[in-house]
Design brief:
The protein is of the alpha+beta class and 196 residues long. Helices cover 42% and strands 19% of the residues. It folds into two domains: 144 residues, OB fold (Dihydrolipoamide Acetyltransferase, E2P); 48 residues, Helicase, Ruva Protein, domain 3 (Orthogonal Bundle), CATH 1.10.8.
Length: 196
């Protein structure tokens, strides 16, 4: 089992990043790959969790220990897998998640992809009292100048990878047309809109 990797960020895709450690390139699945854009070709330390399945061994990565702890709490809930947990973390609204759990707000929880009423109820049972100390844990970065169309396309591709439906994203994409921002900020804004 791994605690963290320290290596060079060599690649960013819509679904994962690649970090080279000791000459090996590790595919690390993260909540928002474009949040790491300003660290490309630089050394970083990233916390990891390995998931071993019958057909694959996958590594999930997190900017902070708190984000990793939230992920582990989420995947401990029956019905929430690693991809759904990443989608919840990608919303970057841990305060809203904590509040929803404390207030037993099922309608808020069912706004996440692949989270139905039954799974939301299970989240309330399993996570009550466990997530109250977790703060927003995603790395904060300054907006960068990026090709706006490319950034928006990358953001929509990452949202699809998190499990959101193309029909939902089409409406969101129209809202952002003509704007200029980074893929990371588009994702954050889109997730906030979808959570309303």
């Amino acid at each position: 089992m791994y605690e963290y990797f320290k290596g060079i960020l060599t690649k960013i895709t819509a679904k994962y990043i690649v970090v080279e450690v000791g000459g090996l390139g590790y595919i690390l699945h993260v909540a928002n790959p474009y949040a790491y854009s300003d660290q490309l070709s630089q050394e970083l330390q990233i916390y990891v969790h390995q998931v071993v399945r019958e057909d694959a061994e996958l590594l999930y990565a997190f900017a902070t220990e708190e984000e990793k702890r939230l992920f582990l709490n989420l995947i401990s809930v029956s019905g929430i897998g690693p991809v759904s947990a990443l989608a919840i973390i990608a919303a970057d609204d841990n305060a809203g998640l904590v509040q929803a759990i404390e207030q037993k707000n099922i309608s808020y929880l069912t706004k996440f992809p692949k989270i139905g009423k039954k799974t939301a109820q299970q989240m309330l049972l399993d996570l009550e009292g466990k997530v109250g100390t977790i703060e927003n844990a995603s790395p904060r970065q300054e907006a960068q100048s990026t090709n706006e169309n490319q950034a928006l396309e990358e953001a929509m591709e990452a949202m699809l990878a998190l499990g959101y439906k193309a029909a939902e994203l089409k409406k969101i994409k129209k809202f952002f047309e003509g704007t200029s921002d980074t893929a990371e900020n588009y994702i954050k804004s889109a997730l906030k809109m979808l959570m309303k």
